[in-house]
């Protein structure tokens, strides 16, 4: 849908404070990476929402297909032994 | 502030007002662009710069009013002085022109501010030093952002290059004024309030010329032209800027907003 | 409202009738959306759902950026530096909101350029309210208080809308907008405590904006196109008339605080209903404005077109520079 006159689309990821992961917060259009970073700062951190920014060209993202959702994720539903609550321990063993 | 500074109060006040007025008038010009940018993102970015400049102006005007000691606050100084009482460099008041001119003019001024803030951090006027300290962070970003645009447009298409070159030819002579000392500067510098403008010249020139070179622009021949806004003698544009900015406030003397 | 698209005849042309197997899929989709399940960008969706969303979200985005213009009209004249700062930040937020919304609509496969083209050629609409002029400083306060107040009423339910990217954009927007209405009311509060001239300015602004603001909520429910389907899909959550009533009820005590009156002789509290009654809206005015014949339609659109056309060389130059830089990097690596 994009034409060659439109600035490419970038996805913006913000780390809201030290110690947390970067999280997707939105998108913007910019001509190049340096501009995308600066504009992300101006568009998405006007209220001190972040301390670090990643920008990624939207067309460089490989995403899973929603129609594969069942194949990809449903098989994990019965792997209950991966969760700590699967195991019943004697009361004496308090924190494990 | 403190006793030794009070002795040369008039020069001190004028020195601070010049810096305040530069931020205010440039913010006023940039605010005209809000909602009319070449795309949404740069529109938002430019407004951030306008907001920062406006914030600097408010702090500096309040400080100047306090130094002056006649009860004038930021609004009294912004809305109730006439053109000849404003001391911003003429560069700040010129009409916006196209996006090339907007970017280059703002770049010239914020690059000058960057040098100024650094020097002011050693000011004996502690309040002024604190404002400079705070402003220097935002100014560093402004320089980077605007230098990016100067380079992009200078080294973009043939059309954008021609526009940026035209902006450079028009604006560069107005920067002569930024680095020329007068009595106020000499008095303020002698008192340790702030640097002589001439002392900022080399660093400013180096910073600007590096960007202009990257933008593939050629420096126009130097000219004896000298604007005089810092002395209160402005271009024809200035009175229009103020007429617009002050119209509502002046229609309601004494009103609170 | 900012999303009057719901109520305005569709100009995209009819949507093709889906094939039989599509119909089953669509029924399942409708059922899921009705249960409040969230739809994401790449999920399957009926073509009509996609079209409706693109229309509504892009109109919402257009409203934000056209909405920058009437307020921008006063930013250079704001009577104090504090008010100038607030107004500038607010207008800038609206640009940001337009941007978030365009991005949300782009996830549906329409580019921002296509949406802007629809705006510039007059094919796409934006909220009727921005076709009214801002004539005095008090208009800035009234826009914050009433226009943003009305917008918030409509926007808060959209945070729960069925389309994920739209809902997330609305969450961010509502969070940011919470200061917009307050600053407008605060501005008016200052006028209400001011001189007689300031109070008269405020009253005049309320008189001019009141009816257009009530029209923002769109036609009465019985005359509202597409409303039912949008409700079913969870794109719209509360009806026009309900929102309008909520707005009037919330606004009356605030108006009392400001000491303003409203230009409606039928406006009074109805004990039996527990709501304020209000007079009949002049829908011919609404449709005139929607169809391009309001006081500022031509100017608003022209301002957008001018900014876009005057910015073309800038956008092009930035791309050209990016290509040059990429080529230089590639050459250096080779």
The main sheet of chain A orders its strands as 2-1-3
Q: In this structure, how is the largest beta sheet of chain A organized?
A: 3 strands, antiparallel
Given helix and strand content, the structural type of chain C is: mainly alpha
**CATH-derived topology of chain A:** Ubiquitin-like (UB roll)
- What characteristic shape of chain A results from the CA principal axes? elongated
Structural class by sheet pairing and helices of chain A: alpha+beta
- Give the averaged pLDDT of chain C, no decimals: 93
Protein traits:
heterotrimer, B: 257 residues, mainly alpha, Ferritin, 10 helices, 67% helix, disordered N terminus, C: 334 residues, two-stranded antiparallel sheet, 2 strands, globular
SSE blueprint and pairings:
The complex is a heterotrimer of chains A (96), B (257) and C (334).
Chain A: E1 9-15, E2 22-29, H1 33-44, E3 52-57, H2 69-73
Antiparallel strand pairs in A: 1-2, 1-3
Chain B: H1 3-6, H2 9-31, H3 40-68, H4 74-79, H5 99-120, H6 126-154, H7 158-175, H8 183-190, H9 197-214, H10 237-251
Helix pairs in contact in B: 2-3, 2-8, 3-6, 5-6, 5-7, 5-9
Chain C: H1 20-34, H2 47-66, H3 68-75, H4 81-106, H5 112-120, H6 138-158, H7 164-192, H8 196-215, H9 227-233, H10 240-258, E1 268-270, E2 275-277, H11 283-293, H12 297-310, H13 312-333
Helix pairs in contact in C: 2-4, 3-4, 4-7, 6-7, 6-8, 6-10
How would you describe this protein?
The complex is a heterotrimer of chains A (96), B (257) and C (334). Chain A is of the alpha+beta class and 96 residues long. Chain A contains 2 helices and 3 strands. Chain A has a 3-stranded antiparallel sheet with strand order 2-1-3, covered by helices on one side. In chain A, strand 1 and strand 2 form a beta hairpin. The longest helix of chain A has 12 residues, at 33-44. The termini of chain A are far apart. By secondary structure, chain B is mostly helical. Chain B has one domain (10-217, 232-251): Ferritin, core subunit, four-helix bundle (Ferritin). Chain B has 10 helices and no strands. In chain B, helix 3 packs antiparallel against helix 6 and helix 5 (99-120) packs across helix 9. The longest helix of chain B has 29 residues, at 40-68. The radius of gyration of chain B is 18 Å and the shape is globular. The two termini of chain B are 29 Å apart. Chain C has 334 residues and is mainly alpha-helical. Chain C has 13 helices and 2 strands. Chain C has helices spanning 20-34, 47-66, 68-75, 81-106, 112-120, 138-158, 164-192, 196-215, 227-233, 240-258, 283-293, 297-310, 312-333, and strands spanning 268-270, 275-277. In chain C, strands 1-2 form a two-stranded antiparallel ribbon. The relative contact order of chain C is 0.13. The chains are: A alpha+beta (96), B mainly alpha (257), C mainly alpha (334). Chains in contact: A-B, A-C, B-C. The interface between B and C is large, with 49 and 49 residues.
């Amino acid at each position: 849908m994009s034409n060659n006159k439109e600035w490419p689309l970038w996805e913006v990821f913000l780390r809201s404070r030290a110690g947390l992961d970067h999280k997707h917060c939105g998108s913007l259009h910019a001509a190049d990476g340096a501009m995308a970073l600066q504009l992300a700062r101006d568009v998405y951190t006007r209220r001190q929402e972040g301390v670090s920014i990643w920008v990624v060209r939207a067309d460089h993202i490989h995403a899973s297909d929603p129609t594969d959702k069942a194949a990809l994720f449903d098989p994990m539903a019965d792997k209950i032994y991966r969760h700590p609550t699967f195991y019943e321990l004697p009361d004496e063993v308090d924190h494990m | 502030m403190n006793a030794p500074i009070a002795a040369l109060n008039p020069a001190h006040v004028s020195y601070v007002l010049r810096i305040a007025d530069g931020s205010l008038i440039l913010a006023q010009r940039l605010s005209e662009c809000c909602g009319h940018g070449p795309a949404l993102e740069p529109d938002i970015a430019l407004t951030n710069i306008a907001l920062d400049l406006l914030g600097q102006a408010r702090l500096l005007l309040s400080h100047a009013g306090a130094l002056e000691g006649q009860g004038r606050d930021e609004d009294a100084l912004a809305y109730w002085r006439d053109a000849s009482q404003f001391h911003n460099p003429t560069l700040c008041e010129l009409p916006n022109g196209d996006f090339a001119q907007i970017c280059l003019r703002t770049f010239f001024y914020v690059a000058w501010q960057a040098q100024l803030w650094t020097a002011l951090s050693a000011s004996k006027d502690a309040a002024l030093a604190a404002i400079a300290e705070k402003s220097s962070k935002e100014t560093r970003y402004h320089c980077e952002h605007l230098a990016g645009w100067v380079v992009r447009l200078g080294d973009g298409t043939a059309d954008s290059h021609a526009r940026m070159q035209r902006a450079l030819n028009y604006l560069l002579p107005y920067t002569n004024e930024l680095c020329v000392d007068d009595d106020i500067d000499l008095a303020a510098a002698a008192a340790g309030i702030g640097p002589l403008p001439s002392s900022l010249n080399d660093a400013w020139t180096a910073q600007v010329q590096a960007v202009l070179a990257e933008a593939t622009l050629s420096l126009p021949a130097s000219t004896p032209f000298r604007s005089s806004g810092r002395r209160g003698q402005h271009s024809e544009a200035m009175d229009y800027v103020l007429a617009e900015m002050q119209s509502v406030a002046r229609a309601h003397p004494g009103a609170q907003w | 409202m900012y999303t009057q698209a719901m109520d305005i005849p569709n100009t995209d042309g009819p949507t093709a009738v889906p094939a039989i197997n599509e119909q089953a899929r669509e029924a399942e989709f409708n059922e899921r959306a009705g249960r409040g399940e969230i739809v994401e960008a790449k999920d399957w969706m009926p073509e009509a759902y996609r079209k409706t969303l693109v229309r509504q979200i892009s109109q919402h985005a257009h409203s934000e950026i056209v909405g920058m213009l009437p307020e921008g009209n006063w930013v250079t004249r704001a009577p104090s530096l504090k008010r100038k700062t607030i107004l500038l930040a607010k207008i800038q937020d609206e640009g940001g909101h337009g941007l978030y919304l365009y991005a949300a609509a782009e996830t549906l496969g329409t580019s921002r350029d296509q949406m802007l083209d629809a705006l510039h050629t007059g094919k796409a609409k934006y909220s009727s309210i921005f076709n009214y002029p801002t004539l005095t400083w008090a208009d800035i306060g009234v826009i914050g208080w009433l226009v943003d107040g009305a917008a918030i009423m409509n926007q808060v339910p959209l945070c729960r809308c069925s389309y994920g990217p739209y809902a997330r954009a609305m969450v961010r927007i509502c969070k940011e907008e919470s200061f917009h209405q307050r600053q407008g009311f605060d501005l008016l509060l200052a006028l209400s405590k001011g001189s007689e001239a300031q109070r008269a300015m405020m009253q005049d602004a309320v008189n001019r904006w009141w009816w257009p603001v009530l029209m923002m909520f769109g036609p009465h429910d019985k005359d509202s196109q597409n409303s039912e389907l949008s409700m079913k899909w969870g794109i719209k959550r509360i009806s026009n008339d309900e929102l309008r009533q909520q707005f009037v009820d919330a606004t009356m005590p605030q108006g009392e605080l400001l000491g303003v009156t409203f230009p409606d002789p039928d406006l009074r509290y109805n004990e039996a209903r527990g709501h304020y009654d209000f007079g009949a809206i002049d829908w011919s005015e609404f449709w005139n404005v929607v169809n391009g014949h309001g006081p500022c339609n031509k100017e608003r659109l022209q301002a957008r077109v001018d900014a876009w056309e005057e910015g073309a060389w800038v956008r092009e130059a930035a791309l050209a520079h990016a290509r040059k830089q990429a080529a230089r990097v590639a050459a250096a690596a080779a």
